[in-house]
Amino acid sequence: MKKLSIPLVLMATPAMAAPGAPFFSLYNTNFTVAIAFVIFVGILIWAKVPARITGMLDKRSSDIRDELAEARALREEAKALLASYERKQKDVAEQSDRIVSKARQEATAAADQAKVVLQETITRRLKAAEDQIAAAEAGAVKEVRERAIAVAIEAAREVLARQMTPDARSASIDSSIEQVRQKLH
User: Fold this and answer.
1) What's the pLDDT at 72?
2) Which of 20, 105, 111, 146 has the greatest count of CB atoms below 10 A from its CB?
3) Where are the alpha helices (DSSP H) in 12-114?
4) What is the mean pLDDT of the chain?
5) With 0-12 CB in 10 A as exposed, 13-18 as middle and 19+ as buried, what is 89?
């Protein structure tokens, strides 16, 4: 069988397919393939496949455009929020400067009354002002971080919700369970 298959394969070339047949004949394989191709293209056009493909590509491009616009809006919102917190921090710094200035003025007025009371008052007021500045700065930084984290988590949640398939979600849960199991044992 192996000896017979090699000559048969060599004889089955396109030149041997229709010897002596005219081009416009169903016995000519080139003509038959051309007709089949034209019919196939006609069926694709009749079934509106190019329009469907174009529609799917247009929908995908508009989805991507919408996602980019949403990302830009989130970025602008984050910039505005950061600027707002920077202004608040600047206001707190100015307020702390005013507090320190006021404390120094009161300390100067108290210097005439008594040297001992003056030293205690200056120390107490400067410490209170520094503590208030530190607390205000810590609060502003914490508030900025919390808001940035909340915005990042929400954006990540939306992106993951759109991109996560049920299979990927299941695999993620399985790997998380396995990590917890390994850490507990």
Assistant:
1) 93
2) 111
3) 14-17, 29-46, 49-111
4) 82
5) middle
3-state SS assignment for residue 2: helix
**DSSP letter at 8?**
H
CA–centroid distance for 50 within its chain: 31
Whole-angstrom distance, CA of residue 141 vs CA of residue 66? 32
Chain mean position to CA 58: 21
Other Cβ atoms within 10 Å of 129 Cβ, number: 20
Q: Which two tokens stand for residue 77?
A: 């919102």
Q: What is the pLDDT at residue 13? A: 46
Extents of the domains making up the chain? 70-164
Q: Residue 73 is encoded by which pair of tokens? A: 């809006």
Q: How far apart are CA 16 and CA 51, in angstroms?
A: 40
